[in-house]
Every structure is written in C-alpha cells, then in structure tokens.
Amino acid sequence: FLNEIVPVCEECNINLALHPDDPPVKKLANGQPQIIYDIEQIEKVCNLVPSPRNGVCFCQGTFASRGINIPSAIRKLGEKIKFVHARNVVCKNDEGTEFYETWQDTGDIDMFEAMKAYYEVGLTCTIRPDHVPSMATESNELPGYHVLGRLFALGYLKGLMESVQKSA
Fold first, then answer.
1. CA–CA separation, 58 vs 70, rounded Å?
2. Residue 82's CB: how many other CB atoms inside 10 A?
C-alpha cells in the first residue's frame, strides 16, 4: 500500500498521517490483533517507505494511555508528525486498557511540555482538540465533539502555544 500511495502523496503535495490503533492494545477484546499501538511501530511504518510525506497522526491520548511519555515521543518522531490530536487522559495502567478521557488542562499529559516539544521540533501542522467532555447544557448526542467543550479546548491550546512561543 505505502509503495503505491506515498509517490501519489509526493506528487500531489499531501501528507499521509497514520493514526495509531485505538485503544492501543495488542489484541482487542474479541481477539483481533492490532499492529500499530506504540512509537516503535509507528516509526517502522514511516521508515518502510521513507518520505517527507509519510507520517503519523500523533494522537496524544492513544499514546499516553499506553504509558508513553508524550514530550519524549514528540521529540523522537519530530518531522514524521503530520497532524495532532491534542487530547488528555487519566491512565489506570500502562497497557492501554484502563483510562478515561478528560479535559486538555487535566489528566496525565503535561500539555505545556507537549506544546514545548512541538515547538522545539518545528512542528507546523494542524493541532486540534480531540474528544472533549460535554459541557453543561450540551445534550451529549455527540460525545467528545460538542461545540462548547471544543471552544474551551481550542482556547486553552492556543494559550499554551502562545505561552511557549513567547517563553522561547
């Protein structure tokens, strides 16, 4: 697949961004194996067909729920990151099986340190909030994707980005 699609991505000047398996476990509850659930596997896929267009959708919550240090992973993957899902989680274990999603400004990920790492590696791609809790008055019909929660998360992330840039 990559041998066929990466040249097309290069020709069209678009990025391929692989999202890791979510939840990030070796096997799903039904026994189906997963193949891309940690940083080493993401790197392997990116290196199968080396190209500035072959990269990753860096889903912070997926990697953090596996116990992966997010700022270190950002620095390791660097320019391979083509898109960011900036979400936060609280983890109960490092196997990716027991966690819950929370606001971007709470949880196990140090979001300021994550934003510093993105800045240090020169990231220029889209960073968007992902899976925000519902706010009061929201129906919860679209869990994780309601407007008020996303507005809060966007403001928080933008403030972090500005703080990192000004402190650099």
1. 10
2. 23
Q: Residue 45 and residue 56: Cα distance in Å, rounded?
A: 9
List the chain pLDDT tens, one digit each, 168 residues.
Answer: 999 999 999 999 999 999 999 888 888 888 888 889 889 999 999 999 999 999 999 999 999 998 999 999 999 999 999 999 999 999 888 777 788 889 999 999 999 999 999 999 999 999 999 888 888 888 888 877 888 989 999 999 999 999 999 998
Locus of tokens 């019909």: 141
| Cα 130 to Cα 28, 72, 83, 116, distances in angstroms | 22, 20, 12, 19
